[in-house]
Amino acid sequence: MSTSEQIIPHGHVLRYALKERLTHWVAAVAYLYLLATGLAFWSPWLFWVAVILGGAPVSRMLHPWAGLIFFAAVWNMYVMWAPQMKHTDVDKAWWKAVRYYSTNQDDKMPPAGRYNAGQKFLFWGFFWSAVALLATGVVLWFPEYIPWNLRFLRYISVLIHPAAALFTVGLFLIHVYMGVFAERGAFGSVIRGDVSIAFAKRYHPGWYKEIVGQSSTPRK
Amino acid sequence: MSQATLRVQKISGHAGSVPGEDTQREYTVCKLIDTTTCIGCKACEVACMEWNDLPFGETVFDNTYQTMPETRWNYWNLILFNEHVREEDGSLMWLMRKNQCMHCAEPGCLAACPADGAIIQYTNGIVDFQQANCIGCGYCITGCPFDIPKMNPKTHRVFKCTLCTDRVSEGLEPACIKSCPTGCLHFGTKDDMLDLAGKRAKQLREHSHFPNAGVYDPPGVGGTGVIYVLHDATKPEIYGGLPKDPHVPWTVKLWKGPLKWLGNVAMVGGLIGLFVHYLRYGPKAREEEDINPGGKP
Ligand code: HEM
Ligand code: SF4
Ligand code: SF4
């Protein structure tokens, strides 16, 4: 996307194109379903969730399919965003200053690009978890076809699948907290697609400079 | 599958207490299989199919005396056949082992199952699958150290030997026991069967030149409701892969134990932590000011 197209009237800049927003919501809806049905099988105290979602056998049947959709969406994100998620020196400085970020002293943060280091961590965390969840999920999908001498595959899958899911729950909680509650305006960026110029300047100064053409370094 | 008059002592995937726990004094039942007197006639296989109305299925001939490679969702009881050359004198043995659910005291299938009431253990020790509550996840297949639960591919429900729960609850012995022509199968209380098995093993050691004869009642799963007398208890593997020291897989224990607690504490703690963080720090900035700098529309 060329930079000038991203500036839209009323003091806003385009952050996410339609394709990006759609991918985000396919992943999000699939993830929420996976989380709800997964947690139902995780704990007897939450088994009722599967009952509400059409019955436990139905949840068992659909969970893996939702997993495939989720993985496809994450894969699409990888194709779209991976080049922008590379770790840079600014990110190193960002992690060093992360306590200022978490205490809302954003003026003390090194200037983030389109994604700050935390967002990059979220991306890679979700990407690798999705890979692990897919690999172990396929084993859990068809345990009866895993031959007896390959049973270790089942043994590690029942452990790694929920462990990876738990890891994504941590990422997911922080992600929703940041996007809905902490960084006001971020939620709109995945709905309408744009953010205010003030938002761009405050949280992604590097990115802002780039799109208004004041920066000499091209965006990676 | 019939619960009849039996009381339940363990329920899979169950939140809260077990109704009827500790309400009944009952003996633990046990099936004793004396592999040394089994002749591999398959009467018990037929009796199992007859009593449980299992459909006739195709057998698989593999040049041995075994009906098919392994048990199926609708074939719960299989005599495993193995040829074994004794190290002591080079003589050939035909080993027959009746293979079915072992009715473990600490069943891995039940520990792994997420569905409320899909697997239950009665106070008499029988482990029984309740297909009506089964969701077809196959976790029990992973939990079982004996490769016993089998999936019906069409209905996605898991089946296995019930130890003829319906018969036992009416005071009868399982169908297989009734059919055995050599008397190598016995049924009774666990204590009685252990006693009988011990005597038979002693007899084999002292009078039949089987110095390693012994009883198979693996402690790794808390003992089993099906016990064997083996000619050589030091090598259970030669009997069609009977595991020497079966355990519920440690990853299953870790998953259903510490990981569950760690995960629950982390998830609830994370939620509370974020909420408190919001109360303390609030949003980074107000959106209204950004959209409407200076109050312009
Ligand atoms: C990527 C493809 C995925 C596949 C093929 C897959 C497949 C499966 C299967 C077959 C099971 C067994 C029981 C059931 O069907 O519910 C399962 C359990 C589970 N899944 Fe997934 N899944 C995938 C992704 C995910 C994701 C993204 C999450 C995160 C929310 C997740 C969370 C869980 C949880 C929490 C369980 C229960 C674990 C337990 O019983 O302790 N899965 N998954
Ligand atoms: S497949 Fe096995 S573990 Fe899963 S619900 Fe049925 S009995 Fe329980
Ligand atoms: S042998 Fe397998 S199926 Fe039978 S009670 Fe033990 S763990 Fe469950």
Give me some keywords for this one:
heterodimer, A: 220 residues, mainly alpha, Fumarate Reductase Cytochrome B subunit, 10 helices, elongated, disordered C terminus, B: 297 residues, alpha+beta, Alpha-Beta Plaits, 3-stranded antiparallel β-sheet, 9 helices, binds protoporphyrin IX containing FE, binds iron/sulfur cluster
Give the structure's gist in a few sentences.
The complex is a heterodimer of chains A (220) and B (297). In chain A, 66% of the residues lie in helices and 4% in strands.
Shape of chain B: elongated
Note the beta-strand portion of chain A.
under 5%
Class based on secondary structure composition and strand pairing of chain A: mainly alpha
Q: Give the end-to-end Cα distance of chain B, rounded to a whole number of Å.
A: 71 Å
Q: How much of the sequence of chain B is in beta strands?
A: 15-25%
CATH class of the largest domain in chain B: Alpha Beta
> What separation lies between the terminal Cα atoms of chain A?
12 Å
User: How many separate helices of chain A?
Assistant: 10
Low-confidence stretches of chain A: 215-220
Let me know the number of strands of chain A: 3
Query: Helix share of residues of chain B?
Result: 25-40%
Distinct ligands: protoporphyrin IX containing FE, iron/sulfur cluster
* SSE ordering of chain B: EEHEEHEEHEEHHEHEEHHH
Number of domains of chain B: 2
Explain how this protein is built:
The complex is a heterodimer of chains A (220) and B (297). By secondary structure, chain A is mostly helical. The longest helix of chain A is centred in the C-terminal third of the chain and has 31 residues, at 152-182. In chain A, strand 1 and strand 2 form a beta hairpin. Chain A is elongated, with a radius of gyration of 20 Å. Chain A has a 3-stranded antiparallel beta sheet. Chain A is built from 10 helices and 3 strands; from the N terminus they run ββααααααααβαα. Chain A has one domain (3-214): Fumarate Reductase Cytochrome B subunit (Up-down Bundle), CATH 1.20.950. Chain B is α+β, with helices and mostly antiparallel strands and 297 residues long. Chain B folds into 2 domains: 8-247, Alpha-Beta Plaits (2-Layer Sandwich); 249-284. In chain B, the strands form 4 sheets. Chain B has a 4-stranded mixed beta sheet with strand order 9-2-11-10. A 3-stranded antiparallel beta sheet of chain B has the order 1-5-6, with no helix packed on it. In chain B, strands 3-4 form a two-stranded antiparallel sheet. In chain B, a hairpin with a 4-residue loop joins strand 7 (150-152) and strand 8 (157-159). The longest helix of chain B has 24 residues, at 258-281. Chain B is elongated, with a radius of gyration of 26 Å. Chain B starts with 7 loop residues before the first strand and ends in a 6-residue tail after the last helix. Chains A and B meet through helix 1, helix 3, helix 7 and helix 9 of A and helix 3, helix 7, helix 8 and helix 9 of B. The complex binds protoporphyrin IX containing FE and iron/sulfur cluster (2 copies). Protoporphyrin IX containing FE binds next to helix 1, helix 3, helix 6 and helix 7 of chain A. One iron/sulfur cluster (SF4) binds at residues 12, 112-113, 115, 118-119, 129, 134-140, 149, 158 of chain B.
